[in-house]
Amino acid sequence: MRLWICSLLFYTFIYLICEIGRFQFSKFDKSKHKSIIIILEFIGTIQICAPMFDVNIIIESYGMTGVLIEIIFIEICNSYLLRDAYGDPCPIIGKLLNKKSWKWFSILLSTQFLAGLTSFRLAKYWWSLKFHPIYDEINSKENCEADLTVTLIYGMVIEAMGVISSKYIGNILEKYINDEMWNIVFNSISSGIICIMGIQLTGMYANPIVAWACTFNCEGVSHFGHFLVYWIAPVFAHYVVGNFHEEECHNISLNDKVEEKDEVEKNQIDDAKYESDIIDKEESNDCDTNEEISTNLNEKNVENDNNINFTIDLIDDKKKLQKKLGGNRIIKENSKKMDESSIEEEDCEEEEIDEEEDSSECSIIQKYSTD
Fold first, then answer.
1. Which among 177, 228, 210, 273 is positioned nearest to 53, based on CA atoms?
2. pTM greater than 0.85 (yes/no)
3. Range of the domain at 177
4. What are phi and psi of 219, to 5 degrees?
5. Domains in the chain, number
């Protein structure tokens, strides 16, 4: 079997394992199960680290051209397949500098170390299948050789410049190329070119966890030198280009985008609940106002009825009073008439008495005259 076919099968093997694992665990809610975030970080780091074990095999067989094609292919695959993970300690360190939790930083960093070791075990397992004779030679080697062939200071500068140049090229492409597919293609090509420019000097990993998985404890560099070149230099480069600002740390990896989506969904749920509460309150207030309006209307109706009854009573009373007044007037008129008639009778009686007196006087006078 040709070596490039074996390499292609190796990449397919790694990506298939990662996709199956990601499919199984992405079903769970990460906001409720924090362990799912750790598992997805473990899977994503394996996807980043494992294909890099094949680079030295390709460079020995196909040279720089083969490495360029390989890096471009790997970068394109990771652009589409890598998600829900950092796969790089630098963003985690940036979050720590932005006053994030030490506990969460330690958990994720330990997860990445474990994933790097697992990547090496997966590569060893693939080589043990002996699809190509070169795999037997790799398995027979007891010790590995470090990729650092320059001084520590020079190596730090090269690794830092690799990170900085990759960042600035990405910003330029994002500014002038709006199409996502072409942006990914040109970014992958630029990453391949940067890699082959420094691969014979430091390995040009530009990712501390990949360098640790592939070269840590290899002959040719001390642990302190490895830490300076492959850890301090990339972290410093990320700081220089501004990746450790809080806004950049939110956008630097797909895992942050997932967390932001979860936060947005939570906010949307909270907003929906808040809106429903407001609607319920408004409905209850409307019901209360309707009840108040109905009670007020009922009260007004009762008052109107009372007023109507009162006015009716007043009218009745007025009528009764008028009747009474009319009766009193009649009584008064009758009494006046009675009084007038009685007065007339008295006058008549007085006149009769006077006449009788006059007649009696006349009779007396006549008697005296006769006498």
1. 210
2. no
3. 3-252
4. -75, 140
5. 1
